[in-house]
Amino acid sequence: MCKFSHTRLPSFHPFHPFGAPSSIADFMVQGGDPTGTGRGGTSIYGHPFADELTPALRFTGAGILAMANSGPNTNGSQFFLTLAPTPFLDRKHTIFGRVSDGLGVVQRLGSVGVDAQDRPREEVKILKAVAVPAEAESEAS
């Protein structure tokens, strides 16, 4: 389960592979490229969109969900989940969620065997993703 801090959420495709995923131990796991090349994927707008940087949101630990990019304002469909604190990414990537339940699954993704390009040796798929707005989770507690 993941709490989201933005109202515009990326679409996750159940039973669809991560798409050219990568996993770098003690750093992050990345996915969201439907072309499988590591360079593809467009945003829901059909073009790259601007960063939405919120100073209060920081890469403080494992389970932070953010947009991958190749520089300022180049967000497409690729995203990543952190496996550890990564403060050097603060104010460089749009953070839009945090894993609130199931962090062990994220950690297992980070321990999958990878090749020389940091791509998993075996196919990795998202089978289910549950988005819970941060406000809704707070109200339910």
TrEMBL record:
InterPro entries recorded: Cyclophilin-like_dom_sf, Cyclophilin-type_PPIase_dom, Cyclophilin_A-like
Keywords: Isomerase, Rotamase
Encoding gene per record: cyp1
Protein name: Peptidyl-prolyl cis-trans isomerase
UniProt organism field: Tilletia horrida
Protein family membership: Belongs to the cyclophilin-type PPIase family.
Domain PPIase cyclophilin-type, first and last residues per copy: 1-131
Catalyzed chemical reaction(s): [protein]-peptidylproline (omega=180) = [protein]-peptidylproline (omega=0)
GO cellular component: catalytic step 2 spliceosome
